[in-house]
């Protein structure tokens, strides 16, 4: 499912949060939106998801104008930094939630949940409650729950941002592997340039609401096109 962002602008009061952003996301690719805090990444992602209206510009999904479509119509899965799992539901029922509301049969739900538990490598923990999981495990469950609804696109806003450095590194590798298995077009927001460079096929670097550079990690390393990009990717976390 390819996505085309065309000349998107968003202003909050006098403040220009997203400034004429255009970019293309190829079907099946894993793209990072990378930039410092306040650079407009979350706002852009929310506009792509249909959670926020832009002031100007269009969002095209698979060659169709989706600018005025609802979140549901866009068939997008969303995962935020702070796991929004249902505390009173087990892992299994959290994952099943996306299927249950679509009136799937019990046996199909069980089969699907088992597949997803395997995919997130948490088979055996299906009967636990979120409070009995680590932060990294909770984010994996949140991803599985989004995937259960079979979205065409997955948007992740700093999915590992709240976790400690070691777990974050493990989840990078895991996200890459997961993407190779499911091939859902995925866009993830991060302010961590190591994370973006290691995980993504392509990286979109944002600064002050604008796109500074778009390229593969290698292209950006080898040929940063601005002083800002050079400094930003040179920083270590
Ligand atoms: P990032 O995700 O890159 O940190 P955001 O997209 O969250 O950046 O925010 C970009 C800028 O827009 C920030 O300065 C933020 O304070 C501002 N902003 C975001 N959402 C709102 C809002 N609902 N009202 C006013 N200002 C906002
Ligand atoms: Mg943000």
TrEMBL record:
Membrane topology: Peripheral membrane protein
Keyword Transport attached: yes
Limits of the ABC transporter domain: 3-233
Subcellular location: Cell inner membrane
Molecular function as annotated in GO: ABC-type quaternary ammonium compound transporting activity; ABC-type sulfate transporter activity; ATP binding; ATP hydrolysis activity
EC number: 7.6.2.9
Gene Ontology CC: ATP-binding cassette (ABC) transporter complex
Keywords from the named record: ATP-binding, Nucleotide-binding, Sulfate transport, Translocase, Transport
KW Nucleotide-binding (keyword) present: yes
Protein name, as recorded: ABC-type quaternary amine transporter
Section of the entire sequence shown: 1 to 237 of 335
């Amino acid at each position: 499912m390819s996505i085309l962002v065309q000349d998107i602008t968003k202003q909050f009061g006098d403040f220009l949060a997203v400034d004429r952003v255009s970019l293309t996301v190829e079907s099946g690719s894993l793209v990072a939106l990378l930039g410092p805090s306040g650079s407009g990444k979350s706002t852009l992602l929310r506009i792509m998801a249909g959670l926020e209206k832009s002031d100007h510009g269009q969002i095209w999904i698979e060659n169709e104008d989706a600018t005025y479509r609802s979140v549901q119509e866009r068939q997008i899965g969303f995962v935020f930094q702070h796991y929004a799992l249902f505390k009173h539901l087990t892992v299994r029922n959290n994952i099943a939630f996306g299927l249950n509301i679509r009136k799937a049969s019990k046996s199909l739900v069980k089969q699907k949940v088992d597949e997803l538990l395997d995919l997130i490598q948490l088979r055996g923990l299906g009967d636990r409650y979120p409070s009995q999981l680590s932060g990294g495990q909770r984010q994996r469950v949140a991803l599985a729950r989004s995937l259960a609804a079979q979205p065409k696109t997955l948007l992740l806003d700093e999915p590992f941002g709240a976790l400690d450095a070691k777990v974050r590194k493990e989840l990078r590798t895991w996200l890459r592997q997961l993407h190779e298995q499911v091939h859902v077009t995925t866009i993830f927001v991060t302010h961590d340039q190591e994370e973006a460079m290691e995980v993504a096929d392509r990286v979109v670097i944002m600064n002050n609401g604008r796109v500074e550079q778009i390229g593969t990690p290698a292209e950006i390393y080898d040929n940063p096109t601005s002083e800002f990009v050079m400094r930003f990717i040179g920083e270590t976390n």
